[in-house]
Protein: Divalent-cation tolerance protein CutA
Amino acid sequence: MYLLVLCTCPDNSIAELIGRALVEDKLAACVNIMPGITSVYRWQGNVEFGAEVQLLIKTASDKYPLLEEKINSLHPYETPEIIALNIQQGDKHYLNWITESLKENS
Structure:
């Protein structure tokens, strides 16, 4: 099974740090960095607005525990967004590429 993992970051430098680490460690096949989002959220009783960068992380479900651990180790937020969504369908060539990209010997 494949996952799309969402994670917001405070800026591009953190997003690039996390994205590079996940791909280099073969915990993700691909990480898209989407700058320029605005998040509205409740934190410690207050409604907050903040500029953030969204990561779209493509991986396999068996990699998720280590991926979550890696994000938490690099992320500056006390409670980072780490949400995994099952990929129900996808182009077989792309899904095969994800599998090949995550293999230890590739």
The chain has three helices and four strands. The chain has one domain: 2-102. Strands lie at 2-9, 30-43, 46-60, 83-87. The longest strand covers residues 46-60.
